[in-house]
């Protein structure tokens, strides 16, 4: 191409530097692009106006400024939420959805940091839910104190997740079997496991494919239980599970960035040969990390089942995969994960009532795909350069 | 007498990569029937230039003439069509395929069905014609390195190459095999072929080349000088830009006690074939024991066994009074054992982690760097700043990921990490490979310093010059065995070369 | 039951295995091609899903199964094109890209397939065969297609020129490149081919072997295919056998519901059926365990350059 008489040419070359903003920029641009592409898919699926749809999603997931203002007012004056406004309702729902997402995300983060592709967070979550249910409904008496019950459920869920994560970890550490396939297969086994118990097996009550409602102590206390004292909290189903997630995020962050174990994990994840050379045991860490990862996902299962208050054949699938995406969007950073998990919680809540169903899952796929792509595009740089005229130069002579 | 016509001419070639100008208006030509050496250090741009000629790279500017005609080479196929064939440093042969299959790769025939008997006959005939016999049905991984090189040459001749570019061909050969190769090349020139001989080894250039062109940092510093008329010292200066010392000034060694003892060590390589056979050696404090040998004779496995990366199948190793076996805590041993690995990027460093975090790789789980559970990052930072200064590592900051560093600086990081702990034993594997002369000098000096401080050093190297100038004793490895041990004063290149090729010589 | 009935039952079960295994055969062999060329495609599941959904949708709107199969093939190939672009041109990690593609395919098929859930399905055109009774002609045709495809695939890979080029690209891309073979184009070709086969496989599931569309139709078959490639040691013929074996495993719960087998019939024991549903997945893990012992000794196994993006060396020495 010519400009001002001189020849110019576009050249694409790889970047040499590695500025921090690439990660953030690619995530943000990725999401925006995904929303853009998603708009077309929505159109194809029959939605009239994608932008309006997105607005509704946001409103359902987080509420509008007006809603928040009304909520703050009501909080300050200790009155209930005025009619016609949602106040903190959507936010509360979002936080409820965000807590299992955050936990499965952390499970993915800790594993992915070591390049252990744990795609089985779903299965581990299911096993955790199963164990928690077992303890709550069949083991402990109905009159157990709430906090003891919840703690027992949490322990059971975590341990079940640990055991379920141990299997692929062991197979990888000892026999070098791909954890991608084993964790995936175990997902399906996990689904069937719950189906067996709850749909046709020992735990189903009559013809209902469910364990029936849990005894009250086996459920999370909700903010709405304080509605008498604080009317603003009426209808807010948010529960302490979100704190579980945040605490776990802080723990994982500390492990990764401050502890010796975290250093080992990061070294292994980046160069297993160097790790081996430094005397770091690969096998031991594979097993430990898979156990931790499974445990976190198992805890997510307990979190969810204590919120749903029953275990049935429609127990939520897919949190494990959402965890993969949120982990990637958060650049495998546990603290960023808190924010992104909340955003995704909002997405899930916001799309609940939207037709056609499945938007969330479609958007998730597009987001991950676009983010992966844009991240790489940012590693290149476009240069405009002059095309030089050929000059014949004499080589330097030898004296 | 009129000079013979040019087989090819490259004029004013410019080739750029991100951040570096590899060829800066380079002129290079080669006459029919000559061996023209292209000399330069690592990174001077020799391979790049020849890759342009071979159609693998496109130059940003410049012209290429073959037999007087201007050509545009857009692909390797173009180059081969014009008679340019390149034998690369790392062979471009598919290991699991046969010789014949490798021959036809990229050609137009056979078109669809894979019937290779015709090809096999041609390969046999060609081999006999040029004295490069090879079994066309053999699979590449079954052949020796020398045989594989023959296949590479045949591959080019099969395609009618008139100009043969040999990129550092002697790196993997014994001195005897090098002689055979040189003879083959001379024969080929008599048949009208032209040879471009890329090398950084002055001795070889002097032995084989008719003319020499020297590249330094992408620029021609000597164009087509007759090899007979230039001394080694002159060539070296053109390569490097200053006078370099050929021998290091060092004191006589004062060997002390045995630091490392190996007794009948046996080990297998990744394929399950024996790589070490009954290796018995001692390394004493205050001396440098050099291990000579063509790469691939067990040196890598030896280093891996000695640093805990590979389990020996039998035999014993003692580090001072401590046996090294399956119960060894390698992290502990690593405090006193320094290792410069062969492949600094693949094994020696953690690319995404910063300089400071790499520097503590061997000490991350002991005070003062860490406490029971956590790592003290201010101590890590401090340590990093100190070592960066001490070893003059060029890096924007101590937190820069090490994959951003140049090869030389990365090697410095590894050295800093390994030597700052006052090790008793250092195992250095090809420590100067791929580095420029300045860096090489620095590392040689460091090794001598360590030795004089009382460390025992095991130096595994392919460069006989390096071994002869640094080592106090030289042991030669061939096919996993120690075939002889000599001291540099009493040995000569010819003897060592024989040992490298498998003949046992009494010391 | 007498021996004749038992024999007939066995043949029926066997044929059922062939039918059930054929989609797996196509997906597995497609992936073998992709991996032989050096690119791992973990998006098979997504490609199968989108193939299944689009195939069904096209049939529903046109009445032609053939068009439906073609549509499935095309969409599978399209998705594979995306994966190829990201992993070959942009050189992304092949694992992550494969996962993203699966989620993409899953999400799209879920949302666009909504209107087709529970709709009427293609009616099979039956022909009567001895022993087997009335079977669907489409199913028979499909099985025969599979039986022809596998040996053809083997021949292509091992005895033809393009097969040699493909294997070279997967084993030693630099060597292939230096001799003028276009590594990128070759890899693109076989990744897309693999995707087309996966899309085709998915379409056969929703149109022929188990007509109908539901969200998540393929229930993990694509992942099983990834494992099967390893177990088949990247050989198409072996891939065929293991696919049929897994077809058998999938059919087992269904076949055992046959009341003619009172002792082990699952009609009386629905919970056993649920547990048996786990069989293919557990079996996959088991075969990987068995396979892991072999492969260490086998040495010839994965294509040497599998999983590594090809970069023509940028820093010249």
Brief descriptors of the model:
heterotrimer, A: 399 residues, mainly alpha, ABC transporter involved in vitamin B12 uptake, BtuC, 3-stranded antiparallel sheet, 64% helix, C: ABC transporter involved in vitamin B12 uptake, BtuC, two-stranded antiparallel sheet, 12 helices, globular
Per-chain topology:
The complex is a heterotrimer of chains A (399), B (507) and C (317).
Chain A: E1 2-3, E2 6-14, H1 21-44, H2 50-62, H3 65-77, H4 89-112, H5 121-139, H6 146-175, H7 179-200, H8 241-258, H9 260-270, H10 272-277, H11 282-308, H12 319-329, H13 334-350, H14 359-377, E3 380-386
Antiparallel strand pairs in A: 1-2, 2-3
Helix pairs in contact in A: 1-14, 2-4, 2-13, 4-8, 4-11, 4-12, 4-13, 5-6, 5-7, 5-11, 5-12, 6-7, 6-11, 8-9, 8-13, 12-13, 12-14
Chain B: E1 6-17, E2 20-31, E3 35-39, H1 46-53, E4 61-66, E5 69-71, H2 76-81, E6 84-87, H3 99-104, H4 117-130, H5 145-158, E7 163-167, H6 175-190, E8 194-199, H7 202-208, E9 211-216, E10 219-226, H8 232-240, E11 258-268, E12 274-284, E13 288-292, H9 299-306, E14 314-319, E15 322-323, H10 330-333, E16 337-340, H11 344-348, H12 355-359, H13 377-391, H14 407-419, E17 425-429, H15 437-452, E18 456-460, H16 464-470, E19 473-478, E20 481-486, H17 493-500
Parallel strand pairs in B: 3-8, 3-9, 6-7, 7-8, 13-18, 13-19, 16-17, 17-18
Antiparallel strand pairs in B: 1-2, 1-4, 4-5, 9-10, 11-12, 11-14, 14-15, 19-20
Helix pairs in contact in B: 13-14
Chain C: H1 3-36, H2 44-62, H3 65-89, H4 94-112, E1 126-129, E2 133-136, H5 137-159, H6 161-171, H7 173-178, H8 183-209, H9 221-231, H10 236-255, H11 270-277, H12 279-298
Antiparallel strand pairs in C: 1-2
Helix pairs in contact in C: 1-5, 1-8, 1-9, 1-10, 2-3, 2-4, 2-8, 2-9, 3-4, 3-8, 5-6, 5-10, 6-8, 9-10, 9-12, 10-11
